[in-house]
């Protein structure tokens, strides 16, 4: 029964998240056409400060609520679960309101002296109002994950995306002619109002569901200690990483200027890589994101029960699927990057970044899934250490390489970071979950299959055709069919060989 619930949640969550991410990609395409790569870069600078503020205000709170509610419900302590949610919501709202006030008050200094672009100030002021709603929504999201109701969080995020798009499309005709400063303000106004509406939507779902647990809340013994033990490593890690990421994002335009680009060109290159190419590469990760989030309560419950065989089996299956899937996506982007870039953005130059960055996809996707499993296994300390190492490395390399190498330096930073963080996290999971890695069937064979499939398709079909939706879809569908069939047949042959050894052994 539990397996059926997990699969049902995973499928529903994937479907809804796929719709949400698709809307997000199309929205990014829409705004890139309206405000250009420079506008995307300017918006990215404002959003990196907002992301740090949001991280400082509410990072770790979703995981904390998920773990605390899962633990209390596993002991049939419904009143304790309600207590945990209420306390976490109260704390996060107070904390986020304080951070929001600081962001609003110091937005002029942040935009002018730190981001070195005063056009970002107005956007920062608007974004500051969204922090309390975002923090409270994060708490409720943790509750739904613990209750195996992740579909509700996906619906909330879908509503948020729809609101964001609707608001920008409503105000864009008035704001865009006023310049990039107001155009970006129109985008973040959508973000702020979307957080407002999505919070009240989540609250309504929570109040409806919580009736099943009763109305009485009861203090959990050692609540503060447990909450701090779970949330502190993640919060410290997230804040430090977000802070270093903010520094890195500010250093990218700075480094490109030092390399020789003017301010406008630097923002355009920054916008192309971080705001246009990377979202396309990350988009297919929606299929793994659902499993990553659902694995946290599953792993946590298995660990509490001391069921090590279940942990090992789940981790091995998820890791295998993640590697095969991400290698399929990576090789598809590698061979069809130009076509995809032209289809989405109408800009072949973005195809270069998509193709060059495609080999890091397996590391990025795997890291996302592995982090989810490590959190469920109470490995926050190692999660903290690895993220600190990764973030420090990124900042040092960005500061050092970009003035010397320009955009090539950005690409090198992406590679080093992805390999370092994913490698350390994966090695830790292999150790604590006792995973038996199958290098050939999980990595080598899928890579060979992906490269072979791409070469065959490019040899048969035209390599490039401007804005040909049918050609791109045809290439991708044929590629996926060949890849899936080859991997499936390989698995069947391996299983039959193993069974024959057992039979005749």
Describe the structure in your own words.
Residues 498-505 have low confidence and may be disordered. Helix content is 87%, strand content 0%. It has 505 residues and is mostly helical. The relative contact order is 0.10. The protein has a domain at 1-221. The protein is built from 18 helices and no strands. The two termini are 36 Å apart.
Low-confidence blocks of residues:
498-505
Instruction: Please tell me how large the radius of gyration is.
Output: 23 Å
User: What profile does the largest beta sheet have?
Assistant: none
Element order, helices and strands?
HHHHHHHHHHHHHHHHHH
Structural class: mainly alpha
Query: Rough shape?
Result: globular
Taking the alpha carbons of the first and last residues, their distance comes to 36 Å
Strand content: under 5%
Overall residue-averaged pLDDT value:
85
Number of helices: 18
Proportion of residues in helical segments: over 70%
- Tell me how many strands there are: 0
Question: Helices, strands, pairings?
Answer:
Layout: H1 2-58, H2 61-74, H3 78-105, H4 107-114, H5 121-128, H6 131-146, H7 150-175, H8 180-209, H9 223-259, H10 263-282, H11 286-304, H12 308-345, H13 349-357, H14 361-376, H15 380-405, H16 407-433, H17 439-460, H18 469-504
Helix pairs in contact: 1-3, 1-5, 1-6, 1-7, 1-8, 1-9, 1-10, 1-11, 2-3, 2-6, 2-9, 2-11, 3-5, 3-6, 4-5, 5-8, 6-7, 6-8, 7-8, 9-10, 9-15, 10-13, 11-12, 11-14, 12-13, 12-14, 12-17, 12-18, 14-16, 15-16, 17-18
Keywords:
single chain; 505 residues; mainly alpha; 87% helix; disordered C terminus
């Amino acid at each position: 029964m539990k397996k059926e619930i997990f699969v049902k949640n995973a499928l529903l969550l994937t479907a809804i998240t796929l719709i949400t991410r698709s809307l997000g990609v199309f929205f990014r395409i829409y705004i890139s056409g309206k405000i250009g790569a420079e506008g995307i870069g300017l918006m990215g600078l404002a959003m990196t400060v907002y992301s740090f503020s949001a991280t400082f205000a509410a990072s770790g709170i979703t995981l904390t609520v998920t773990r605390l509610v899962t633990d209390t419900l596993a002991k049939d302590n419904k009143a304790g679960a309600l207590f945990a949610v209420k306390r976490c919501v109260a704390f996060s709202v107070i904390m986020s309101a304080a951070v929001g006030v600081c962001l609003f008050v110091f937005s002029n200094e942040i935009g002018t002296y730190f981001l070195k672009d005063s056009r970002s100030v107005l956007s920062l002021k608007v974004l500051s109002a969204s922090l309390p709603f975002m923090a409270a929504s994060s708490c409720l999201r943790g509750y739904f994950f613990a209750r195996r109701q992740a579909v509700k969080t996906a619906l909330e995020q879908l509503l948020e995306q729809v609101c964001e798009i609707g608001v920008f499309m409503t105000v864009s005709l008035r704001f865009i002619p006023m310049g990039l400063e107001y155009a970006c303000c129109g985008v973040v106004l959508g973000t702020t109002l979307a957080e407002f509406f999505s919070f009240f939507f989540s609250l309504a779902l929570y109040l409806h569901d919580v009736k099943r647990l009763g109305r009485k809340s009861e203090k959990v013994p050692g609540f503060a200690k447990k909450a701090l033990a779970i949330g502190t490593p993640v919060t410290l890690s997230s804040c430090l990483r977000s802070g270093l990421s903010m520094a890195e994002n500010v250093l990218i335009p700075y480094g490109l200027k030092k390399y020789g680009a003017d301010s406008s060109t630097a923002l355009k290159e920054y916008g192309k890589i971080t705001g246009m190419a990377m979202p396309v590469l990350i988009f297919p990760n929606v299929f793994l994101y659902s499993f990553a989030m659902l694995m946290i309560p599953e792993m946590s419950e298995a660990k509490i029960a001391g069921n090590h065989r279940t942990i090992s089996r789940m981790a091995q299956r998820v890791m295998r699927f993640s590697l095969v899937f991400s290698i399929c996506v990576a090789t598809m982007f590698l061979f069809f990057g130009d076509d995809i870039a032209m289809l989405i953005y109408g800009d072949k130059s973005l195809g270069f970044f998509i193709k060059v960055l495609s080999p890091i996809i397996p590391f990025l996707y795997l890291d996302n899934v592995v982090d989810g499993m490590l959190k469920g296994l109470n490995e926050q300390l190692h999660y903290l250490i690895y993220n600190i190492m990764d973030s420090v490395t990124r900042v040092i390399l960005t500061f050092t390489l970009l003035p010397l190498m320009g955009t090539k330096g950005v690409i090198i930073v992406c590679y080093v970071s992805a390999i370092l963080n994913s490698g350390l996290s994966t090695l830790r999971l292999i150790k604590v979950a006792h995973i038996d890695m199958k290098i050939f069937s999980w990595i080598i064979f899928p890579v060979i299959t992906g490269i072979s499939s791409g070469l065959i398709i490019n040899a048969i079909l035209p390599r490039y055709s401007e804005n040909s939706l049918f050609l791109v879809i045809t290439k991708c569908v044929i590629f996926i069919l060949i890849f899936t069939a080859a991997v499936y047949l390989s698995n069947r042959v391996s299983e039959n060989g193993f069974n024959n050894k057992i039979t005749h052994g």
